[in-house]
Amino acid sequence: MTTRKRDEADTPRERFLYTDVTEEEYETIVRYCRKEHISISQFLADLLLQEANKSHASRQDKYAVKIDLTPAEHEKLELLTRLHHKGTIGDYIRELLEPELRLQRVHRSAKTKHIRYYFSDQEYKAIIDYLNGAGLSARNYPVILALNAIQKRRKKKQT
User: Fold this and answer.
1) pLDDT tens digit string along 20-42?
2) d(CA 30, CA 39)
3) How far apart are CA 20 and CA 108, in angstroms?
């Protein structure tokens, strides 16, 4: 298998960001990158650049979240929904989560290690504008993208 190189940039890739990963996340990303013959920096940078270049319309998609509940827990949730005058359980859960979703920056305090990934000046500006506009953290968001991409590619290969 040949190494897939990144497209040439107008300027050297001297700008960088860090992302924080747990040891388990790091091992997952390293295994994937070795298998694909790409650097971790390239993998993370490419994912972020793809995300930043997605159309605004695709960011408006909605996702459904599945929660496994026992029948007793479901009944309590229905009761809480009624008592809080919400139309659906989804409306009630959304109201509970809304303050957390409105946070400008989401941080975690897990024991992590840092991975540095590089951009050209133009790429860096595009990424910073995207992350700031979306209220996303350069320290945490890239690892979510990476793990989701790895999981999607694994599922794709299994089918």
Assistant:
1) 899 999 999 999 999 999 999 99
2) 9
3) 9
Please tell me the pTM assigned to this model: 0.65
Q: What does each C-alpha distance from 128 to 2, 52, 60, 79, 124 come to in angstroms?
A: 31, 9, 20, 44, 6
pLDDT at residue 1 in the model: 36
Report residue 116: phi and psi, to 5°.
-100, 135
Q: Tell me, letter by letter, the H, E, C secondary structure of 11-60.
A: CCCCEEEEEEECHHHHHHHHHHHHHHCCCHHHHHHHHHHHHHHCCCHHHH
Pair 41, 14: CB distance under 8 Å:
no
